[in-house]
Amino acid sequence: MSPDQILAELSERRRQDLPTHGGRTLAYVYDSGLAAADEIGRQALAMYASANGLDPTAFPSLLSMEADLVAFARTHLHAGDAVVGTVTSGGTESILLAVQTARDAARVERPAMVVPSTIHAAFAKAAHYFGVELVAVPVGAEHRADVAAMTETIDRLGDRVVLVAASTPSYAHGVIDPIEELAAVTRERGLRLHVDACIGGWILPWMPDAAPWDFAVPGVTSISVDLHKYAYTPKGVSLLLHADAGLRRPQFFAYADWPGYTMLNSTMQSTKSGGPLAAAWAVVRLIGSEGYRELVEHTLTGTRALAEGIEAIDHLHLVERPDTSLVVVGTDDAVDVFTISDLMLDRGWFVQPQMRFGDEPANLHLTISAATADSVPEFLTALREAVAEAAVAGPVRIDPALAEAAATLDPDTLDDEAFDGLLALAGLAGGDGQVAVPDRLGPVNALVDVAPPRVREALMVAFLDRLTR
């Protein structure tokens, strides 16, 4: 193929995706609305695409850019010179490394970490990978971490606890956990406290009325902050910061007992492109502290306007009042979030359904970025229309027998043939066994919503497995 043919085909395939710019995709992507930031990020990404972060002595420019980003973050996270940091590929890797580091530092049998039940799923992934028991404590009022219940759990587990973690804010509800109170508990017991600020860590520093949450709080030992979220850098960049070098040391991996080069890594990856790091450095340098303050103010103004508008729409309510830029919307019994999600996509807006959890019904998650703020009136008009149409259609109804079957399935007893049948019932597979994403996800999501978490997981794994065959 010629270069022109290749670019034409890429453009055609790209049209199948959700838009990453324009502020109409309210999950997965973050858009500053600054064309200059997008352009400088793309140029830096291309310039450093073949640079390898494996060996900082071979590519000292990457080392210097990493140091610059860590220094910029230290300035805004009330961190002294003792704080050290590492650039990772994203929030999940930062969280994985925080858990692995805590586990390796403690070296106890049956290690455990204590977290609120609203903690990001990446902690469950870390628990699975590293053999650390995830002890999730139900949250208290306003979906915030219950400090008393977590303290009781910590004391019950005793020396097994290697890490305590909390969110600023939580993804599912957009509220900030009480970091000061938790830090007092962990500090008294000599435990590590990780603050997952992957979403809020580049917003809260420019919110003067934010409650203390960062290294200004004695007892906070590590923080994860994603740059590819509200720093608006191209995808693939997060920061993991530790309060001092001693706390970080177990994060490093070295291996010399083989015939090749001595492997030395600060992250999960060995070879890693320098492109995302260079792009992040370029965008952060371009926007700067004052630029981020303006973007945060604009984003929060849009978030407040959106929250007020939602409260004025029949059948909708706020699950919690947003602490930063995440808005979570609930409905009454006349409509369901899955139909609304489909109808909003018809109108050019992507909103993210979140499945029921315990006694809490499904809801809609909205991530507001700076580019979305100017479009809030347009979004609210579309949302009002979608809700009215959903009210006429009524909630998606699942056959009671099918719902009962989904609720009582044991995924451990199902074979591939049974999963193929379930995927077909869910509308995700045809008679030939081939799977595809349907045009309308509402009925599929409604069925998945009535299934217990383990059945949901098994169905989604089966779907992804067949989708990628």
Automatic annotation (TrEMBL):
A family per Pfam: Pyridoxal_deC
InterPro entries: GrpII_AminoAcid_Decarb, PyrdxlP-dep_de-COase, PyrdxlP-dep_Trfase, PyrdxlP-dep_Trfase_major, PyrdxlP-dep_Trfase_small
GO molecular function: transaminase activity
Cofactor: pyridoxal 5'-phosphate
Keywords, comma-separated and alphabetical: Aminotransferase, Lyase, Pyridoxal phosphate, Transferase
Gene3D superfamilies noted in UniProt: Aspartate Aminotransferase, domain 1, Type I PLP-dependent aspartate aminotransferase-like (Major domain)
Protein family per UniProt: Belongs to the group II decarboxylase family. Sphingosine-1-phosphate lyase subfamily.
Protein name: Aspartate aminotransferase family protein
Organism: Aeromicrobium senzhongii
